[in-house]
Amino acid sequence: MSESNYPTAFGVFMAPFHKIGVSPTVLYERDLQIIELADSLGFQEAWLGEHHSGGHEPIGAPEMLLAAAAQRTKTIKLGTAVNSLPYHNPFLLAERLVTLDHLSRGRAIMGFGPGQLLSDAYMLGIDPTKQRDMMLEAAEVIVRLLRGETVTEKTDWFDLREAKLQVRPYSLPELDVVVAAVTSPSGPVTAGRLGVGMINLAATSPAAFGALRGHWKIAEDEAAKAGRTVSRRNWRLSAITHIAETEEQARKDCTHGFEEIWNYLAHISPLPASEKPDVEGMIDEAIESGSVLIGTPDTAIKKIRQLADQTGGFGSFIMTLTDFTDYERQRNAVTLWAEHVIPEFRGQLKPIREHNAWVRGNEWKAETMAAINAASEKYAAQQQPVSVN
């Protein structure tokens, strides 16, 4: 596998999955502080999700928190992962993302999907069997609006008449747009038809991992049909991730909230429920199945290389952070990732290691001591009294 197929951009994603029983005010502040930390350590992207029920994922308006993050960060890009398009008038959502793009000086990314939680769709009176069609209808309109077009489009759930954004995105040539995918083909079909990026969530889980190569082929095929192109540099993979100094410490960290969060995930997603009698067994089972990436920086490096082999290459890897661990251990995981994983794939460590080996492999000490002695002798000679006849 060529190094050019490995990701060179990295990010953090918080759906978020928080434990029940903590003030949402505190949780919002912690999420923002994680984004600040990632920005200070050189991560390229930060993502927040949109959910409206369930309790564990309390962010209903990710673009609002990202606007706050924009004022507290310098370079990190800020993405919605993802806006659930069937829940929004496409014109108004496009306006909000353009506003975020200006507030962040061109750092906004619009991630979109059909909506994950059936409970959200139920509360909004939306038929879940229509959500993917609704997503595509809205996405086509939003992309046209963001590209400066005037749109007249009527469906059974929105009606736009000569709609045109009065404020264009700050980003040039256009605001970055990304569609979510897991196992269904709807994500790559949309990415290809619209010529936008793609983010595959839960990419290490067995079903999603198996779908990766096929997803990219679908995206390329659909792009060709539509006369568009897709780039692997704009393909992101994400997985539930926690790393620590040792494998044992990583597992220990996750006993904090793994059982609560995993049982919730098994209730709302294709991830399988565990029948293990204790949390340690649940953690081991999830690691062995590939459903989570839990271990050390070396574990993460190995897994990313496996993902590159499976896909043929992708552009960014996004850490999905959860309350498997407490807040301080999440911060530690982000720091370890910046110290060891990012520089491995961005080529920053190789020349340092080569120089270290080069210096250690040569006998510089004798020459250094000889130079010191020569300088000392020269100085001593210069101090000898001059004879006067």
From TrEMBL:
Pfam family, one: Bac_luciferase
Domain Luciferase-like: 10-309
Any GO CC annotation of this UniProt entry: cytosol
Gene3D superfamilies: Luciferase-like domain (3.20.20.30)
EC numbers, comma separated: 1.14.13.-
Keywords for the protein's UniProt record, in alphabetical order: Flavoprotein, Monooxygenase, Oxidoreductase, Plasmid
InterPro entries per record: Bact_Lucif_Oxidored, Luciferase-like_dom, Luciferase-like_sf
Single GO molecular function: oxidoreductase activity, acting on paired donors, with incorporation or reduction of molecular oxygen
Protein family (similarity comment): Belongs to the bacterial luciferase oxidoreductase family.
Protein name per the record: Probable limonene monooxygenase
